[in-house]
Design brief:
Elements (H helix, E strand, L loop, with lengths): L2 E9 L4 H16 L4 E9 L6 E7 L2 H12 L2 H12 L3 E11 L13 E9 L4 H17 L3 E8 L5 E8 L2 H13 L1 H12 L3 E12 L4
Antiparallel strand pairs: 1-3, 1-4, 2-3, 2-8, 4-6, 5-7, 5-8, 6-7
Helix pairs in contact: 1-3, 4-6
Length: about 210
C-alpha cells in the first residue's frame, strides 16, 4: 500500500530554472532516505505553471521512517534553510495520497502521462463508492491503463481518486478511443449514472517532468 507525499510549487517570476535546480537537489537528498521522487507538470486542471514534487514510499511505515530520517539529516536542514532564505517557488499545497488496495506498491515505471479523476462520496454510500471504484479500476486495466485508487489526506476529504497512467500521450489517446466504444464500460457507466454513489469534484491531466541529473 504505497503512500505519495505531494508538494505543489509555482515558480517565483523569473525563477523557474532555479526552482527546477532546487527540486533536482532535493531529489538526491530525499531518495537517500528511501523515497522515490518524481515530478509532474499540470496539462489540464490543477495550477497552471506549477510543478508537483512527489515522494513515493512503499508503505505507511516507510513514509514515517523516511520523514524522521530526512528531518534529522543535517544536509537536508541546511538545504531547507537556504530555500527559506531565498525561495525560488511558492508552496501552493501539500497532501498525501494512500492506496486503497493493499496489494498496490510503488510503480516499477513512472508513466509519462497521468490522469486523475476525483469523486466525493455521497452520505451513507461509502461501500457502494468503493465497490464502484474497484470495478472502474478493473475496466481501466482491461483496456490498457495503469490504474490505482487512492484516498487523500490534507485535501478533498471524503473523496476517492482514480489515477490512470499511460506511457505517453499517444497511448492516452488510444485508450480514450477504446473507452468510447467499449460496451462493458458503457454498461457500467450508465448503471452508475442512474444512481451515483458519489459526485465528480475534480479531474486533471499531468505530464512527467524529468529533472536534470
Amino acid at each position: 500500500m504505497a503512500v505519495f507525499a505531494i508538494h505543489s510549487y509555482r515558480p517565483v517570476p523569473g525563477r523557474a530554472a532555479d526552482l527546477v535546480a532546487s527540486m533536482a537537489a532535493a531529489k538526491k537528498i530525499v531518495e537517500r532516505h528511501g523515497a522515490r521522487v518524481f515530478v509532474w507538470s499540470p496539462v489540464t486542471g490543477g495550477d497552471a505553471g506549477s510543478l508537483l514534487f512527489v515522494n513515493g514510499y512503499a508503505s505507511q511505515g516507510d513514509y514515517g521512517r523516511g520523514m524522521d530520517s530526512i528531518g534529522n539529516d543535517p544536509e537536508w536542514q541546511a538545504f531547507w534553510a537556504g530555500l527559506m532564505a531565498d525561495p525560488s517557488g511558492v508552496n501552493l499545497e501539500n497532501y498525501l495520497l494512500s492506496d486503497l488496495d493493499p496489494s498496490d506498491g510503488l510503480p516499477a515505471v513512472q508513466p509519462g502521462v497521468r490522469v486523475s479523476v476525483t469523486f466525493k462520496t455521497r452520505p451513507g454510500r461509502l461501500a457502494e463508492h468503493m465497490a464502484a471504484a474497484a470495478t472502474a479500476k478493473a475496466h481501466i486495466v482491461r483496456l490498457g491503463g495503469m490504474a490505482r485508487t487512492v484516498q487523500s489526506f490534507g485535501r478533498a476529504d471524503s473523496t476517492i481518486t482514480t489515477l490512470i497512467g499511460f506511457e505517453d500521450f499517444t497511448h492516452y489517446g488510444e485508450f480514450g478511443e477504446k473507452l468510447d466504444v467499449d460496451e462493458q464500460w458503457a454498461a457500467f457507466w450508465i448503471g452508475m449514472s442512474a444512481d451515483p454513489p458519489a459526485e465528480q469534484v475534480e479531474s486533471a491531466v499531468v505530464a512527467r517532468f524529468d529533472l536534470p541529473e
